[in-house]
Amino acid sequence: MANAMIPFINNDFHSGGKGMDGKTASQVFEENLPSDIRHADREALEFALTQVRAMGVRKSQVWLRGVGYYNERLLSYSGRKAIVRQSLLSDAEVLICDLDDRFLFTATANEFKEVAGDPRKAIEKVKRERSFFLPPPSASARVNAGRKRHTRRG
Fold first, then answer.
1. How would you write 9-73 as a 3-class SS string?
2. Tens-place pLDDT, residues 7-21
3. pTM assigned to the model
4. Nearest-CA neighbor of 101 among 31, 53, 56?
């Protein structure tokens, strides 16, 4: 019913609201829509829709959520920080950027070096295996999870 109601409100419901002058929401939208709308290309959208972290590089890897991402070019960043951008859609690769957020290269998850087939399936398998071997939280950990720890300083 909501899907039928939204077009009715936008197209048929004439508003007496401020600046609407008795027009429908769709009419006001069309009148105020700029003619020169810019659209981002796919690569720019994928770059923008990433989780961003500044993190230290160890040897030739960066680590996110227990998964190591490798690229031999990371060796030159060992002991320094880099910006790591992880796609919201895939855990197979991360984008490595300098501290000014300029793209340098991609790094691939280590689990894929010796695995044939789809890397996403391999990473899901590794995640399942890891979660299977983790012990469940103790009862006191579940109870105290939301409590604030007290320190000497208060």
1. HHHHCCCCCCCCCCCCHHHHHHHHCCCCCCCCCHHHHHHHCEEEEEEECECCEEEECCEEEECHH
2. 888 889 888 888 888
3. 0.50
4. 53
Judge contact between 77 and 102, C-beta under 8 A: no
Q: Would you say the C-alpha torsion 31, 32, 37, 40 has a positive or negative sign?
A: negative
Is residue 140 classed exposed, middle or buried when 0-12, 13-18 and 19+ CB atoms within 10 A define those classes? exposed
Domain ranges of the chain: 49-133
pLDDT tens digits, one per residue of 36-95: 888 888 888 888 888 899 998 887 889 888 888 998 888 888 889 999 999 887 788 899
Structure tokens at 55: 């993190």
Helix, strand, coil shares of the chain as percentages rounded to 5?
A: 35, 25, 40
**1 three-state secondary structure:** coil
Angstrom distances, CA of residue 28 to CA of 2, 10, 81: 22, 10, 49
Q: 10 Å Cβ neighbour count for 123?
A: 18
Spelled out in words, what is the top-level CATH class assigned to the domain 49-133? mainly beta
Instruction: Return d(Cα 35, Cα 12) in angstroms, integer.
Output: 24
